C-alpha cells in the first residue's frame, strides 16, 4: 500500500492552524462564540458588598458581587473604586475584589454612583 501525500495548503488555514474537520463553509466562528451581554443600568443592579478572608491566607478583602454588564464596564468601575479607596484590587469572575475591609466606604461610593448596594455578612 502506498501512502498518499497531501499538500499542506489543503489542510491548513491562512493563520497556519490545521483543520481536522469542518462541516460548514466558514472556518472562523469566533463571532458565534461571543455572548451578548445586556448592559443593565446601575439603578437596576443589586450589589452585595462583603468582607472575606476565605482562601486568602488570612488577608481580608472586600468582595463586590452581583454585577450585570460587560467586562469592560466592570473593569472601569473597579479602576474607579480602587482609586477612590486608595487600595489595590482585581476583577475575578464577574466580581470586584479590593484589598482590606472597606465595606462601608465602598457602600457609600456605590450608592453615590447610583447602584443599589447592601452590606452582606458580618
Question: Would you summarize the structure shown here?
Answer:
27% of the residues lie in helices and 20% in strands. The chain contains four helices and five strands; from the N terminus they run H-H-E-E-H-E-E-H-E.
Structure characteristics:
122 residues; alpha+beta; Translation Initiation Factor Eif1; five-stranded mixed beta sheet; 5 strands; 27% helix; elongated
Structural description of this entry:
This protein has 122 residues and is α+β, with helices and mostly antiparallel strands. The protein has a domain at 42-119: SUI1-like domain (Translation Initiation Factor Eif1, 2-Layer Sandwich), CATH 3.30.780.10. The protein is 27% helix and 20% strand. The chain has 4 helices and 5 strands. The protein has helices at residues 8-11, 30-33, 71-85, 103-112; strands at 46-52, 61-65, 89-92, 95-99, 116-119. A 5-stranded mixed beta sheet has the order 3-4-2-1-5, covered by helices on one side. Strand 1 and strand 2 (61-65) form a beta hairpin. The longest helix has 15 residues, at 71-85. The termini are far apart.
How is the topology of this model organized?
Elements: H1 8-11, H2 30-33, E1 46-52, E2 61-65, H3 71-85, E3 89-92, E4 95-99, H4 103-112, E5 116-119
Parallel strand pairs: 1-5
Antiparallel strand pairs: 1-2, 2-4, 3-4
CATH homologous superfamily heading of the domain at 42-119: SUI1-like domain
Note the total helix count: 4
Determine the N-to-C terminus distance.
75 Å
Radius of gyration: 23 Å
Helix content: 25-40%
Oligomer: single chain
Number of strands: 5
Structure class: alpha+beta
Mean pLDDT over all positions:
84
CATH topology of the domain at 42-119: Translation Initiation Factor Eif1
**Strand order in the sheet with the most strands:** 3-4-2-1-5
| Overall outline | elongated
The stretches of 5 or more residues where confidence is low (pLDDT under 50) are none
Give the second-level CATH assignment, the architecture of the domain at 42-119.
2-Layer Sandwich
Q: In sequence order, what are the helices and strands, one letter per element?
A: HHEEHEEHE
Can you tell me the CATH class of the domain at 42-119? Answer: Alpha Beta
Amino acid at each position: 500500500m502506498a501512502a498518499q501525500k497531501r499538500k499542506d495548503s489543503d489542510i491548513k488555514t491562512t493563520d497556519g492552524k490545521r483543520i481536522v474537520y469542518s462541516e460548514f463553509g466558514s472556518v472562523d466562528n469566533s463571532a458565534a462564540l461571543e455572548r451578548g451581554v445586556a448592559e443593565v443600568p446601575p439603578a437596576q443592579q443589586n450589589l452585595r458588598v462583603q468582607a472575606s478572608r476565605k482562601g486568602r491566607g488570612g488577608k481580608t478583602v472586600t468582595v463586590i458581587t452581583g454585577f450585570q454588564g460587560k467586562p469592560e464596564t466592570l473593569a472601569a468601575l473597579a479602576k474607579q473604586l480602587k482609586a477612590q479607596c486608595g487600595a489595590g484590587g482585581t476583577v475575578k469572575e464577574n466580581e470586584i475584589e479590593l484589598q482590606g475591609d472597606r465595606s462601608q466606604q465602598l457602600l457609600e461610593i456605590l450608592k453615590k454612583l447610583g447602584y443599589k448596594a447592601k452590606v452582606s455578612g458580618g
